[in-house]
């Protein structure tokens, strides 16, 4: 599904399988990037969706992981095997991906096992910018849902697009969630004044007021 020019959703419950979190594809000229990878059970379907959006001469350079949970990361190795892309995550979640921790990565919630995942780039700063072809993507550490949760920002089609993924949570002890961090991260996201929010499970929100309204909903602990 095309969201704006050079941005598509290629994975998620309506596009691959119900267990998958949303997977987004971004194009920057002759290079491209993916946000998250799903759990890997419907990888062939995702590849087919990608091929419908991207010409064969456009290379997927990066796979950016928003956090360590299995529905976002279980298919990461398959994606790298297919496209030769670099997998990026924050080092605070990389710990659990690299050792294959099925509890913290929530693989057990899906009746699955998290295989150890080798990462190509781990960042440990508050933010980092990546050059992708003719464009840029910025990563921002926004903990709470997990210790190393990350949001990504890009400017596409004159719009500020926020990949907040699991803005809605949930928070759970097995995830090592932290409510204070989570609230601070939500407040940071609100201040970004994004035009479009691409969430991990609950859809796409357009317009600054609608994005703000959606994020503010989860600042109320009773609604998490």
Please describe what this structure looks like.
By secondary structure, the chain is α/β, with parallel strands linked by helices. It has helices spanning 43-53, 70-73, 76-83, 91-98, 179-191, 208-217, and strands at 2-4, 7-11, 23-28, 31-35, 59-64, 86-90, 121-123, 127-132, 135-141, 150-156, 159-165, 196-199, 204-206. The chain contains 6 helices and 13 strands. The strands form 2 sheets. A 7-stranded mixed β-sheet has the order 1-2-3-4-5-6-7. A 6-stranded mixed β-sheet has the order 8-9-10-11-12-13. The longest helix is centred in the C-terminal third of the chain and has 13 residues, at 179-191. The radius of gyration is 16 Å and the shape is globular. The mean pLDDT is 95.
SSE arrangement:
Elements: E1 2-4, E2 7-11, E3 23-28, E4 31-35, H1 43-53, E5 59-64, H2 70-73, H3 76-83, E6 86-90, H4 91-98, E7 121-123, E8 127-132, E9 135-141, E10 150-156, E11 159-165, H5 179-191, E12 196-199, E13 204-206, H6 208-217
Parallel strand pairs: 4-5, 5-6, 6-7, 11-12
Antiparallel strand pairs: 1-2, 2-3, 3-4, 8-9, 9-10, 10-11, 12-13
Helix pairs in contact: 5-6
Brief characterization of the structure:
The chain is an alpha/beta fold and 224 residues long.
């Amino acid at each position: 599904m095309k969201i704006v020019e050079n941005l598509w959703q290629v994975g998620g419950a309506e596009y691959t399988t119900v267990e998958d979190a949303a997977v987004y594809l971004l194009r920057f000229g002759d290079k491209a990037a993916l946000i998250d990878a799903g759990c890997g059970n419907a990888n062939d379907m995702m590849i087919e969706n990608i091929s419908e959006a991207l010409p064969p001469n456009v290379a997927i350079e990066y796979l950016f992981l928003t956090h360590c949970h299995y529905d976002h990361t279980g298919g990461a190795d398959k994606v790298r095997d297919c496209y030769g892309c670099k997998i990026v995550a924050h080092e605070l979640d990389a710990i659990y991906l690299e050792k294959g921790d099925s509890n913290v990565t929530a693989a057990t919630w899906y009746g699955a096992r998290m295989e150890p995942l080798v990462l190509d780039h781990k960042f440990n700063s508050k933010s980092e910018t990546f050059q992708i072809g003719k464009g840029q993507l910025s990563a921002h550490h926004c903990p709470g849902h997990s210790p190393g949760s990350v949001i990504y920002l890009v400017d596409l089609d004159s719009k500020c697009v926020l990949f907040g993924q699991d803005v809605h949570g949930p928070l759970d002890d097995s995830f090592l969630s932290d409510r204070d961090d989570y609230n601070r991260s939500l407040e940071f996201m609100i201040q970004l004044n994004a035009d479009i929010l691409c969430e991990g499970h609950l859809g796409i929100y357009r317009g600054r007021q609608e994005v703000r309204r959606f994020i503010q909903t989860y600042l109320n602990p009773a609604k998490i």
